[in-house]
Structure formats: C-alpha cells, structure tokens
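Hypothesis: this fold can be encoded by more than one sequence.
Test: take the structure tokens below, design a sequence, compare later.
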C-alpha cells in the first residue's frame, strides 16, 4: 500500500466527525466535488468501502471506523511533530550537554542558572558533565559537549569562543591550628605566605587558577613552594584539612566546608580573583545554544544589578 496522504486522512476524519459531506467541505474550506474525489481516492487506494451513504449524510463502515481512530491518532501525532520541530527551531526543545569544573559547580551562579533554564525550557533534556577545564575544552572541540563553564581563558583554541561570566575573590585555605588561621577577620597579605607549603591543583586540570596564583605570588615577590599537587579542587581541600599545607581557592569552595579548614581573605593588593568563563564553539548555529547563552548573559546582568 502506498503512503496515504495526510490531507486525505484529514478530509476523511472531518467527514466522519460531521456525518455530512457538505458540512465537512465547509469546515475544510474546500468545495464539495474535490472533497468527494479525495474520499473516493482514499477508498480506491485502500480497496475498501469506508463510508456508508445514508439518506441524510454519511457514516463510517466498520473498516472506516478502524481508519477513523487510527487517522485521528496519526493526525494528532503529526501536529505534535510540527510543533516539536518549531520548538526546536526556537531553541525550546532538544538536548544540550553542559560541562563545568568542580569549582564552577560550587558557585551559586551555575546551579541557579541550570535550575532557571529547566524552569523556562522544560522541553529540553540536559546532560551534565564535571571535569577539569582542559578536558572540558577538548570535549567541546570534539562536540561531546555544547557549552562549558571553565576557569581557564584558554584563548587560542581554534573554533572555540570563551566569554567571561564573572569573577569571585580567592581565599587562603589553612589547616585549623595554623598560626595564620587565628585572626580570620583580617585579610592576609600574600607576601606573608612566602615560606609556607602550598598545595595546588594540578596545572592541566586548573590551568587558569594555577597560573593566576603563581603570577600573584611572583608579583608579591616570591615563588610558592608547592609540596603537593592534587587532581581536583576538593582533593586539595582534603589535603589542607589533613594539615599538609595551605592552598588558595575560589571563595565559592567555602561551600564545601571541610573539617579542619579555616578560610582567610587575601588583601586587595594581591589582585587575585577567580574568573568563570563560558566556553562554546564559535559557530553558534544551534538555536538551543544561543538560547542558553542569552540566559547566561541575562543572569550575569541580573547579578550586577542585584
């Protein structure tokens, strides 16, 4: 059997629902003869009688009733399909893969944004991936991710655009009982940490922050003595809590708490802050990704005005 045209099915459903060819023709905005031809064509195509002619109007035969029920379901599905395609074109339906670093996930901005995104666009399925900045940028290039929140500016990667989202202060994380953990209300000058043992997250994982900390220490006149590198920021804090040394972390890491850790502000002259960037492929062709980016921009400006 050939594919039945939707317009023939639409005509047939209208006729059965109205029980009258004249009224169905008015409802479909067509003349009666072409409607009769559509129905005749449908019966010829299927090789069965679908309508029983009555003195006043028509009614479906048994075969016609089966077709009527199936056709109604099919036409409803076709309408949903059209609407789904339009929603996707408007960036309201589809799938988006979002990456973020572990420290980005702890900044209230990211979870709040994702929650708002789900509320505004419930038709979109989201896949969330947590990894280091380097891995996230690789996944973007390979098109395994659509967007990513990263800490590293990573400029110069062909095909990627990195847009600044926000900056947050960085704090010194010290083990409880450390001499500098006492007067926690006062900001610490970075130079006062010149002889301390530093625990930092490995450069490939936290390239942006690692470089920023090293540069700030050099400006303060010393090169930090890094005794241990951890694969992730939360692991760094565990080592600080165990008393192995101190670290410098984005302020949002405070949300992790951590037993045996005291956080202290760093004095302003260190010019040390942790940036958060949105990374995405430069050919932002997808309406979905454009919609996500617009939401990020909106959330950033709301934060500034709030």
């Amino acid at each position: 059997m050939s594919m039945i045209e939707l317009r023939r099915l639409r005509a047939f459903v209208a006729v059965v629902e109205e029980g009258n060819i004249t009224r169905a023709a008015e409802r479909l905005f067509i003349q009666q003869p072409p409607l009769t031809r559509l129905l005749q064509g449908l019966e010829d195509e299927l090789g069965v009688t679908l309508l029983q002619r009555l003195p006043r109007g028509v009614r479906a035969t048994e075969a016609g009733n089966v077709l009527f029920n199936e056709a109604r379901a099919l036409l409803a599905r076709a309408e949903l399909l059209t609407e789904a395609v339009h929603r996707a074109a408007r960036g309201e339906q589809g799938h988006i893969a979002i990456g973020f670093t572990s420290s980005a996930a702890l900044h209230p901005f990211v979870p709040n944004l994702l929650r708002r995104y789900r509320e505004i666009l419930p038709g979109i399925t989201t896949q969330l991936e947590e990894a280091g900045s380097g891995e996230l940028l690789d996944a973007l290039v390979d098109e395994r991710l659509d967007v990513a929140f990263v800490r590293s500016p990573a400029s110069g990667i062909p095909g990627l655009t990195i847009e600044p989202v926000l900056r947050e202060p960085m704090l010194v994380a010290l083990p409880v009982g450390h001499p500098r953990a006492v007067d926690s209300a006062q900001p610490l000058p970075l130079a006062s940490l010149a002889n301390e043992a530093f625990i930092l997250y490995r450069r490939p994982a936290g390239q942006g922050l690692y470089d920023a900390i090293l540069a700030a220490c050099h400006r303060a006149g010393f090169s930090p003595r890094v005794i241990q590198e951890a694969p992730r920021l939360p692991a760094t804090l565990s080592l600080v809590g165990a008393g192995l040394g101190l670290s410098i972390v984005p302020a949002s890491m405070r949300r992790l708490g951590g037993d045996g850790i005291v956080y202290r502000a760093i004095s302003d002259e260190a010019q040390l802050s942790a940036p958060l960037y949105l990374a995405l492929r430069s050919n932002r062709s997808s309406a979905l990704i454009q919609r996500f980016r617009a939401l990020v921009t909106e959330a950033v400006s709301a934060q500034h005005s709030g």
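Residues 21 and 36 are 8 Å apart (CA to CA). The mean pLDDT is 87.
Hypothesis status: open.
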